[in-house]
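User: Fold this; tokens only.

Assistant: Input:
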Amino acid sequence: MKMSEKKFEFKTKKEKDWLIGLLRSEIVELTFIKKDGSERIMKCTLAEQKIPAENAPKGTERAKSDETVAVFDLENNGWRSFRWDSLTNIEFELGSLKNA
């Protein structure tokens, strides 16, 4: 489902934690509106095993913001950020179910 015309509302810590948790385990395609008003689609992750070693987070952590999130952009091979209030779409693959 594409919701480009309506922004997602990530206001609570629980909602933000859900997306951060998803980013820590999966590749997520986020669509958001950039500061200049243009739409941006970004395949990104926070899953350490999916980030090249040379770009892995270092021991020192940047100051956290309640308004933005830093993620690794897999197509541009670098760290980028998005604003919570600019998200318009989130897409991700569900893992496959295996027979026991």
